């Protein structure tokens, strides 16, 4: 088919197709008129740039960079920047859309955004990574700003990359602009508690779900897929603070399971001196796919999208599914989980992993005001927002007899819809 017949074909990607199907389902549930749907769903702006850098060997390499801004109806857009080999326009667009619903559900004055560069950061030297980071931000300068689009870290990026982003933008305008990015080092205007916020939020919501189900955390077992920032902190919070037994852990390179419980301290110690779990030998190995369907009380997919699908949703043996990753459950899996609502308590991704963007919002506010909070204040405010959103989702799901995902999506989409309709269409 021609591009003219499919004007949005630049977003071709399974993650985007999944986001589109989720929106179709919620639009049908909410009876949104067909002529409103495209404006609500499709991104306002999609940017593709070439990112050339000088390599250490004297050659020049060119990488493909992207940024998608979903909507600016409620304020600037907000979203992470990932450096990964999988990055493409469709994936970035899907993530920006999910971020819009996440911000709306939490009541933040943002639209969603996402960006990234298609690159394997392991192939870059520290100098090359700095060059790539600075050049990417330089290419984005015409399209971003503290009141236009605020970047944050994501897969493959970190506080140092955010510092380079900030410095590049600041050098361009001639003065320090701390609020152009979030997830910065504390001494450059970062917020206390930002790095831990997503994982802490996941653990907090798991404990809220346990309260609703009247289950004792100290008698629970947990499987965590993804031992990165989110998964590791969520697992540590549940293990050390709530007394949950961790029985399964994995990253992109290896998976481990022991029904008797894993020694979580050994995994933490290993990661202090290693970049991944590929050569970890302190626990029984299992295939990553099989780990997801082992018996547990709490299952936390905290890695990549589409890992809970039509082929394994019916085999899940968890009581709580806490979606620490973005888009870990496909629409086909949702249809199966909807039939298992009495067995599995789903904490949908736009609620479960919202801690990161909530504390990023706090960081932005603190930078704008040049007034900073201590970590206790940050964490207390984070938990209050999460608890308010959690109660709203559970209450709507119970009242209308719908799934938690449908309830969360309905709340979020309606807020964005009202904002767009109230502002109207210019000109």
Can you tell me the CATH topology of the largest domain?
Answer: Rossmann fold
As laid out across the biggest beta sheet, the strand order is 8-7-6-9-10-11
Rg computed from alpha carbons, rounded to a whole number of angstroms: 21 Å
List SSEs in N-to-C order. Answer: HHEEEHEHEHHEHEEHHEEHEHHHH
Give the CATH level 1 class of the largest domain. Alpha Beta
Give the CA-based shape.
globular
Mean pLDDT: 95
Corresponding CATH architecture of the largest domain: 3-Layer(aba) Sandwich
Structural class: alpha/beta
Please work out how many helical segments DSSP would assign: 14
Question: Could you list the spans in which at least 5 consecutive residues all have pLDDT below 50?
Answer: 1-5
CA-to-CA gap between the ends?
32 Å
Helix percent reads 40-55%
Write down the domain tally.
2
Name given to the CATH homologous superfamily of the largest domain: Leucine Dehydrogenase, chain A, domain 1
Strand content: 15-25%
How many β-strand stretches? 11
> In this structure, how is the largest beta sheet organized?
6 strands, mixed
Describe the structure.
The chain is an alpha/beta fold and 427 residues long. The protein folds into 2 domains: 171 residues, Leucine Dehydrogenase, chain A, domain 1 (Rossmann fold), CATH 3.40.50; 157 residues, NAD(P)-binding Rossmann-like Domain (Rossmann fold). The chain is built from 14 helices and 11 strands. The chain is globular and about 55 Å long. The N terminus is likely disordered.
């Amino acid at each position: 088919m021609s591009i003219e017949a499919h004007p949005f074909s630049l977003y071709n990607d399974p993650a985007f197709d999944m986001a589109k199907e989720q929106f179709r389902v919620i639009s049908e549930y909410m009876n949104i008129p067909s002529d409103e749907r495209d404006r609500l769903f499709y991104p306002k702006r999609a940017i593709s740039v070439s990112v050339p850098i000088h390599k250490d060997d004297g050659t020049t390499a060119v990488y493909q960079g992207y940024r998608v801004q979903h909507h600016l109806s409620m304020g600037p857009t907000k979203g992470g920047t990932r450096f990964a080999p999988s990055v493409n326009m469709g994936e970035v667009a899907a993530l920006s859309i999910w971020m819009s619903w996440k911000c709306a559900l939490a009541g933040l004055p943002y639209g969603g955004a996402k960006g990234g560069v298609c690159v394997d950061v392991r192939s870059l030297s520290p100098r090359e990574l700095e060059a790539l980071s600075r050049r990417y931000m330089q290419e984005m300068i015409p399209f971003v700003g503290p009141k236009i689009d605020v970047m944050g870290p994501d897969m493959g990026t970190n506080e140092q990359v955010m510092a380079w982003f900030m410095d590049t933008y600041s050098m361009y305008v001639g003065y320090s602009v701390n609020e152009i990015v979030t997830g910065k080092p504390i001494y450059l205007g970062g917020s206390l508690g930002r790095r831990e916020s997503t994982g802490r939020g996941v653990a907090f919501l798991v404990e809220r779900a346990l309260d609703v189900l009247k289950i004792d955390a100290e008698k629970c077992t947990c499987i965590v897929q993804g031992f990165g920032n989110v998964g590791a902190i969520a697992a540590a919070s549940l293990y050390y603070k709530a007394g949950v037994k961790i029985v399964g852990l994995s990253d992109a390179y290896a998976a481990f399971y022991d029904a008797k419980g894993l020694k979580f301290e050994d995994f933490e110690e290993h990661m202090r001196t290693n970049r991944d779990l590929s050569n970890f030998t302190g626990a029984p190995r299992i295939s990553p796919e099989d780990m997801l369907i082992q018996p547990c009380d709490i299952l936390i997919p905290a890695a990549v999208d589409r890992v809970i699908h039509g082929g394994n949703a019916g085999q899940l043996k968890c009581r709580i599914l806490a979606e620490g990753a973005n888009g870990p459950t496909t629409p086909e899996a949702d249809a199966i989980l909807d039939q298992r609502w009495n067995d599995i308590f789903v904490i949908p991704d736009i609620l479960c992993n919202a801690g990161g963007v909530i504390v990023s919002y706090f960081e932005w506010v603190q930078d704008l005001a040049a007034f900073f909070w201590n970590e206790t204040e940050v964490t207390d405010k984070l938990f209050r927002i999460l608890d308010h959103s959690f109660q709203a989702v559970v209450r709507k799901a119970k009242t209308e007899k719908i799934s938690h995902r449908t309830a969360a999506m309905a709340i979020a989409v309606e807020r964005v819809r009202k904002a767009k309709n109230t502002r109207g269409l210019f000109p």
